[in-house]
Amino acid sequence: MPATVPRNLGLRDYVSTWQKMQQFTAERTAETADEIWITEHPSVYTLGLNGKPEHLLRQTDIPVVESDRGGQITYHGPGQLVIYLLADLRRLNSGPRRMVSILENAVIDTLSLYGITAKARAEAPGVYVDGKKIASLGLRIKHGCCYHGLSLNNDMDLSPFGNINPCGYAGLEVTQLADYAVNVQNHELAVPIVHQIIEAIES
Asked: Which helix (H) or strand (E) holds 64?
């Protein structure tokens, strides 16, 4: 099995990155190496495939994109770490639930390195600290391969979350690493997460 390839994309537009993920997945073959894309996006709301528009509570200047990932509405913005997993599930002999668990555990284990105790919830995918959501997850499976991934709030303006029911949950509070006095750059924060994802999928 070819080794997983991590790519640091920096700040990238959501729609063009999404289109590149679709293209990569459509064109990949059984020999194509899995990839992990590390990025962050300018301000955007994204609505999942079966997302309900009413979870956008008020219109703002922030664009809304109807995406093809799972899940409801979420927000991406500068200072949030986004990690996309483009993996061949057939080759990994794995299913979407295991991939979601791998992403959740990579975030939980990484946050523990910074002294933050986090947990996942079986009924609501994502990662939570003190009952507040710190990371969101959503995957799309196509032709036996997955794309999309996770977003982890690091050091960002959280106020746009107030215009939505995050991930479809009214009143759900969100948090970030900066709220716990952790000061780390996105590219540094990505290192242990990516390492643990690769270790998990290649084991």
From this structure: strand 64-66
Catalytic residue at 146? no
The one-letter amino acid code at 199 reads E
In 3D space, the residue among 174, 172, 166, 173 whose CA is nearest the CA of residue 55 turns out to be 166
Active-site residue, selected from the candidate residues 164, 167, 174, 200: 167
- Within 13 Å and on the Cβ side, how many CA atoms surround 108? 16
The Cα 148–Cα 121 span in angstroms is 20
Single pTM value for the model? 0.97
Are residues 92 and 201 in contact, defined by beta-carbon separation less than 8 angstroms?
yes
Q: Measuring CA to CA, how many Å separate 189 from each of 23, 27, 108, 123, 193?
A: 27, 30, 12, 27, 7
Fold of 5-202: BirA Bifunctional Protein; domain 2 (3.30.930)
> Tokens 């590390």 identify what position?
38
The four Cα atoms 187, 193, 196, 198 give a dihedral, to 10 degrees, of: -60
- Interval 44-95: pLDDT, tens: 999 999 889 999 999 999 999 999 998 899 999 999 999 999 999 999 999 9
